[in-house]
Amino acid sequence: MTQRERNLGLLVGALFVGIVGYWGYSSWTNAVAKKNTQIAGAKTKLAELEAKDLYAQGVLKLRKSWQSKALPAKSNGAQNMYQAWITEAGEAAKVKGLDIDGKSPGGQRNVYDQMTYHVSGGGTLEQISKFLHGLAALDRMQEVRMLSLKPKEKTGELEFTMNFDTLLLYGSTQKELATAPAKKLEGLSADDLVKGIAKRNLFAAYKPPPPIPTNTAPRDPGPPPSPAFDNRAFTKLTGIIMVDSRPQAWVRVMTQDKKFDLFEGDTFEIDKQKGAVTKINFETKQVEFQFGDKKLNVKLGETLAEPSRPRLGSL
Q1: What residues in the chain have per-residue pLDDT under 70?
Q2: Nearest-CA neighbor of 132 among 161, 104, 101?
Q3: Do 270 and 230 meet the contact criterion of CB atoms below 8 Å apart?
Q4: Domain range holding 279?
Q5: pLDDT value at position 35?
Q6: For the chain, how many structural domains are there in total?
Q7: Which of 154, 182, 198 is the last residue of a domain?
Q8: Same domain, 191 and 235
Q9: How many CB atoms neighbour CB 128 within 10 A?
């Protein structure tokens, strides 16, 4: 074998090794990219499942709260119990000629039954106000849908008619209505309520009382109180992806089944609280939100609750 043939053989061998190496490297990088895509898809699917689970927990919590304020549907005597309670409230307020007509317009099978009571009677404005206070003070699934007042000639008394609805829920463990009011209406007793209503002429245009003069500067009321049910506590950062080389944050409000797909600078609103995305870090999987003058750093899987509230994603 000549030197030329030897050199040519070495060149062919080196070229073969290079081709094999390039093929192997390409196969490895393609496999890694495919695996990373599968992992990212699995994480997104997991985040969606966690969001659905959190939404279901919120619904169950709300349903349990409702069940604590209603008698069981289809239970023996539940309808008569409500009617007897309306009668007791009327007797306590000393309304006259109380007439109660109860009927069931329907409901949803295995969920709830609805009862409607048509109630009529008469009395002074003070007596009717005490009667309404007695109805509203019981913390149950109930609502006065219609109230009509008509003055009686020469007596100074009123005739009233009203429609009063209640819900009886399946799954409720309540066995009886409370024998005393379960809640106090904005801190007002029946006497406070009557005092504010009875001195007014309900059949004339309302005239507000004159303002009370004061020399003191008005106090700063401070920030508005948080709502009793804070939907931000059930709003979760479920995903961070790249869209056209821009990071995008996925935010879902589980209690309202609402989803926001947000880029940096986008705004959104939860419970009339306006928020904005100020920064998305794709590498660390964190998003910086701003509500008013407050900034909040949220990791993937955490909620947008106030710092003073526990975050469901970190429990």
Answers
A1: 1, 7, 20, 53, 55-56, 59-60, 65-69, 72-76, 105-110, 139, 141, 174-190, 198, 215-218, 220, 222-228, 306-315
A2: 161
A3: no
A4: 231-314
A5: 79
A6: 2
A7: 198
A8: no
A9: 25
Question: What DSSP string describes the chain?
Answer: --HHHHHHHHHHHHHHHHHHHHHHHHHHHHHHHHHHHHHHHHHHHHHHHHHHHHHHHHHHHHHHHHHTTSPBTT-TTHHHHHHHHHHHHHHHHT-EEEEEEEEEEEEETTTEEEEEEEEEEEE-HHHHHHHHHHHHTS-SSEEEEEEEEEEPTTT--EEEEEEEEEEEETT----S--SS-SS-BTTB-HHHHHHHHHTS-TTS---PPPPPP--SPPP---SPPPPSS-GGGGEEEEEEEEETTEEEEEEEETTTTEEEEE-TT-EEEETTEEEEEEEEETTTTEEEEEETTEEEEEETT-B---TTSPPGGG-
Burial letters for 205-214: b for 16+ Cβ neighbours within 10 Å, e otherwise? eeeeeeeeee
Contact call for residues 182 and 139 (beta carbons, < 8 A): yes
* Whole-model pTM over 0.85: no
The rounded distance, in Å, linking the Cα atoms of 125 and 127 is: 5
Walk across the sheet containing 112-123 and list its strands: 96-108, 112-123, 158-169, 142-151
